[in-house]
């Protein structure tokens, strides 16, 4: 009991007067589980049962996910989606049983001593902080989690199983890409019909003789406009497929003085000296940081700048990163000229284009 003249320590070093006298607390009422071991054990089993029901509901979620199709209906409840209902009910019950179990645990088995304390400034005194940590440790001890393995283990099992639905639902993000990230349509050409490089938007092939030093051209593969030339089904390069192809195959051509080029090495350690044509080099237009399209060219330095996060690549030196957050050089496409003098791809990129991913191998070019 305190009165209006009592004081309380202030973190700044002074004392704060208690504004209202402490009215005290009524006499503590013991619960049945506090005085009857049999009822205590029964409450413990009830809590563990609730946690066990949560685990069963989580398993029901997983079974429903893999056995019910999205289009299945349950006619008995108004042609509602069986999958949606089953997943929602099972996950809801899993969370509900854990919540009810924790409440039942707290009300029947955890210590229920009442506490009264004044509000204090945002930063408590060191003594108060030590008291708070001690109170937390006391609370953990009084909860009985250390001496009630049945409750502890059933809770850990129920909560642990709840992580599985989150993992399973990742499947709905779409099918895994497999090796699709490693290939682009540039590799669809043949020795007789190599893939031509065409101007983006107008689809005209590019004569090597038409480019002057300093010219930068945004390009796409000719198959997007003329699939029949490469014996491809036109439906393969339409709609969404066309956008996916462009997202990986977009290209930039830059012509510079041939003497400025520093040929690097390919994945097999061979020189890239024959990857350019009279100073014309071709690189992926997709930044290796987060995939932004790049086309800001510094003509005198041959540096290509990404507008998103300012990653800068040296197109005269194998697309090497010279500034910014990108961690990989721009992939280079080996090019040549066909019998008519048009620029073509010799083959596909020798590494994946775009941002990095875990399974992506890399080799040291320098």
From TrEMBL:
CDD domains per UniProt: Rieske
InterPro entries with a match to the protein in the record: QcrA_N, Rieske_2Fe-2S, Rieske_2Fe-2S_sf, Rieske_Fe-S_prot, Rieske_Fe-S_prot_C
Rieske domain mapped to chain residues: 248-344
Gene3D superfamilies: Rieske [2Fe-2S] iron-sulphur domain
Subcellular location: Cell membrane
Residue ranges, annotated region (Disordered): 1-30
Membrane-traversing stretches: 47-65, 85-106, 150-170
Name of one Pfam family that matches: QcrA_N
Cofactor(s) the record lists: [2Fe-2S] cluster
Domain of life: Bacteria
GO CC aspect terms: plasma membrane
Membrane topology label: Multi-pass membrane protein
SUPFAM superfamilies reported for this sequence: ISP domain
GO molecular function: 2 iron, 2 sulfur cluster binding; metal ion binding; monooxygenase activity; oxidoreductase activity, acting on paired donors, with incorporation or reduction of molecular oxygen
UniProt keyword annotations, A-Z: 2Fe-2S, Cell membrane, Disulfide bond, Electron transport, Iron, Iron-sulfur, Membrane, Metal-binding, Oxidoreductase, Respiratory chain, Transmembrane, Transmembrane helix, Transport
Described function: Iron-sulfur subunit of the cytochrome bc1 complex, an essential component of the respiratory electron transport chain required for ATP synthesis. The bc1 complex catalyzes the oxidation of menaquinol and the reduction of cytochrome c in the respiratory chain. The bc1 complex operates through a Q-cycle mechanism that couples electron transfer to generation of the proton gradient that drives ATP synthesis.
Family membership noted in the UniProt record: Belongs to the Rieske iron-sulfur protein family.
Name of the protein described by the UniProt record: Cytochrome bc1 complex Rieske iron-sulfur subunit
Lineage: Bacteria, Bacillati, Actinomycetota, Actinomycetes, Propionibacteriales
């Amino acid at each position: 009991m305190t009165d209006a003249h009592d004081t309380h320590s202030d973190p700044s070093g002074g004392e704060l007067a208690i504004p209202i006298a402490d009215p005290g607390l009524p006499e503590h009422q013991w619960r049945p589980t506090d005085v009857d071991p049999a009822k205590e054990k029964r409450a413990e089993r009830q809590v563990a049962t609730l946690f066990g029901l949560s685990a069963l509901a989580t398993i029901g979620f997983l079974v429903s996910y893999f056995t019910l199709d999205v289009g299945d209906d349950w006619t008995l409840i108004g042609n509602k989606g069986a999958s949606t209902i089953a997943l929602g009910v099972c996950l809801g019950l899993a969370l509900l049983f854990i919540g009810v179990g924790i409440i039942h645990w707290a009300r029947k088995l955890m210590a229920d001593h009442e506490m009264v304390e004044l509000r204090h400034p945002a930063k408590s005194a060191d003594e108060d902080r030590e008291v708070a940590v001690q109170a937390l440790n006391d609370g953990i001890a009084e909860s009985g989690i250390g001496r009630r393995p049945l409750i502890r283990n059933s809770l850990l099992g129920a909560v642990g199983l709840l992580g599985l639905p989150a993992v399973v639902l990742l499947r709905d993000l779409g099918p895994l890409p497999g090796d699709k990230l490693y290939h682009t349509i540039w590799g669809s050409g043949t020795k007789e019909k190599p893939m031509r490089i065409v101007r983006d938007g107008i689809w005209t092939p590019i004569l090597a003789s038409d480019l002057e030093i300093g010219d930068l051209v945004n390009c796409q593969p000719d198959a997007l406009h003329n699939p029949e030339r490469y014996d491809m089904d036109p439906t393969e390069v339409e709609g969404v497929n066309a956008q996916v192809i462009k997202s990986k195959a977009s290209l930039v051509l830059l012509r510079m003085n041939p003497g400025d080029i520093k040929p690097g090495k390919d994945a097999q350690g061979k020189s890239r000296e024959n990857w350019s044509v009279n100073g014309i080099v071709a690189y992926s237009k997709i930044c290796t940081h987060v995939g932004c399209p790049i086309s800001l060219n510094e003509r005198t330095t041959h540096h290509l700048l990404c507008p998103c996060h300012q990653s800068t690549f040296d197109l005269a030196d194998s697309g090497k990163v010279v500034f910014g957050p990108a961690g990989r050089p721009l992939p280079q496409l080996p090019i040549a000229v066909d019998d008519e003098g048009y620029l073509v791809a010799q083959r596909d990129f020798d590494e994946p284009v775009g941002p990095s991913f875990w399974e992506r191998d890399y080799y040291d070019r320098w």
